[in-house]
Write a structure and sequence with these properties.
Layout: H1 2-10, H2 29-41, H3 48-57, H4 61-75, H5 81-88, H6 93-104
Helix pairs in contact: 1-4, 2-3, 2-4, 3-5, 4-6, 5-6
């Protein structure tokens, strides 16, 4: 299921892909979540506090999980454990566990 979410998240493009824009001005919630997702994915690890803020703005749990999971997978070597845990704490249940596992296992990164 996680792979399906990541495929869905990565395939968002076209008009809904507005990384770098002001996502809060988008009225359609689905497009707004997609915008925040794309914005979060594009952010460097040096902006971890901003990443956490953007993740909190994603209202759909599935979109938030996909964005955070993908970001952690790409940047787990670049973020300290405490900040990564703050980001993972925005997720629930199994998603949080998966996120923490990714964060604590950078050596398993493909």
């Amino acid at each position: 299921m996680l792979h399906l979410l990541l495929i869905l998240a990565c395939s968002s493009g076209g008009e809904s892909s507005q990384a770098g824009s002001d996502c809060s001005s988008i009225k359609d919630i689905k497009k707004q979540n997609t915008c925040y997702h794309d914005q979060l994915i594009a952010m460097p690890a040096s902006d971890i506090s901003k990443i956490i803020e953007v993740a909190k703005l994603i209202t759909d749990d599935m979109w938030r999980q996909a964005a955070v999971s993908k970001w952690i997978k790409e940047h787990n070597n670049d973020v300290n454990q405490q900040q990564g845990q703050q980001l993972c704490s925005l997720l629930d249940g199994r998603d949080r566990s998966y996120c923490l596992r990714q964060l604590s296992s950078p050596h398993l990164r493909r």
